[in-house]
Amino acid sequence: MRVDVRPTKKLRGDKPMNLTEALGPIIDALCADSVDLSRLRVVCDWIQYRNNFRDVVDLRQILPPTGTRSTGDLEVAVDLRRCGEEALAAQVADMLREFNDPASSGRHYLEDWTATSASRIWDFNALYWRELGIWEESTGQQYEQALPGGQSDARNAKAARDLIGELFQVWDSLAERNSLPDELYVVELGVGNGIQAKTWLDEFVAMDRALGRDYYRRLHYLMCDYSEHVLALARANVADHIQHVSSFALDATAPTTALGFLRYKVFLAYISNVYDNLPTDEVARIGDHTYYTQARAYLADQDARRIAAGLDVDPTAVTVLADKLLRLGPNLLTEVHPAQFPDVESAAGFWRQVWGALRLEERYVPLRGLDLYQVAPGVSGEMLRPFLEQDGDIRMHVSNGALASFADTLPILHPYGRLQCHDLFVTETQQYGNGFRGPGKYDGSIVNWVNGPLLQHLGSRKGFDVRFAPFAHRPGTNILTLTAQVRD
Question: What pTM was estimated for this model as a whole?
Answer without folding.
Answer: 0.94
